[in-house]
Amino acid sequence: MSSGHAVQTALDATGASPLIEQAEWYAIRTRSRHEKMVADQLEKMGVENFLPLVKRSRQWSDRVKEVELPLFSGYTFVRVALSSPDRIRVLQTHGVAGFVGINSCGTPIPENQIDDIRTLLASDLPFEEQPFLRVGQRVRIRGGALDGVEGILSAQNDDRSLVISLEPIQRSLSVRIQGYTVEPV
Predict the structure, then answer these.
(1) Low-confidence winner among 44-58, 137-151, 169-183 (lowest mean pLDDT)
(2) pTM (2 decimals)?
(3) What's the CA gap between 156 and 90, in Å, rounded?
(4) Rg (CA), the chain
(5) What is the side-by-side order of every strand in the sheet holding 138-142?
(6) Are residues 118 and 40 in the same domain?
(7) Edge-to-edge strands of the sheet including 24-30?
(8) Residue range(s) defining the domain that contains residue 78
């Protein structure tokens, strides 16, 4: 018995493989303030896309107007199979800067995350954008008694803690930062 692996593919009646890459969601970067134009062009080309929009009040010198702005400035989402011609069509769309991911190849986004954004926007509940923070990341507290204190984020969710370390003496303190605004350093 050989140690090599044989790969078998089932062929349909036409002799083609029925195994076709499934379309997945990907984020694409857009040029500044081109998100709506890109989404409109993709829609006209028949490429499934999602541009989450939020209503914000904007003040002009003579009036206040409610406008729809992209939730994630500079990004929109497309659902394509990367091996399909749609990928090239997306990249050739005026205003598209590329797919988001390693070497601009595109990193799939789980469908449930796109659904979660749709659900949140449909709920009309108030929400605030937050910086993307990872456990182990260096962060700085903004506001309150700890304004300007930096440390390593040690936990998220209910027990959000900040570890403040004194590297020269290899000692650390941990403080709960629930209710504080934290930003990446």
Answers:
(1) 169-183
(2) 0.70
(3) 36
(4) 23
(5) 171-176, 161-166, 150-153, 138-142, 181-184
(6) yes
(7) 49-50, 75-80, 24-30, 96-99
(8) 24-123
Nearest Cα to Cα of residue 134 among 160, 105, 111 = 160
Q: What tokens does 40 get?
A: 């409109």
pLDDT in tens, 47-57: 999 999 988 88
The three state secondary structure string of 121-162 is: HHHCCCCCCCCCCCCCCEEEEECHHHCCCEEEECCCHHHCEE
Same domain? 114 vs 29: yes
Model pLDDT for residues 150-166, shown as the tens digit of each residue = 887 776 556 666 666 55
Residues present in the chain in total = 185
Which amino acid makes up residue 177? Answer: I
CA torsion 39-41-46-50 (nearest 10°) is 0
Q: Is the dihedral of CA 127, 129, 132, 136 positive or negative?
A: negative
Residue 128 lies in a domain: no
Residue type, 37: M
Q: The domain that contains 28 carries what CATH number?
A: 3.30.70.940
Decide: 149 and 164 in contact? Cβ < 8 Å.
Answer: yes
C-alpha span between 50 and 67 (Å, rounded): 18
CA distance 146 to 181: 10
- 104 touches 144 (CB < 8 A): no
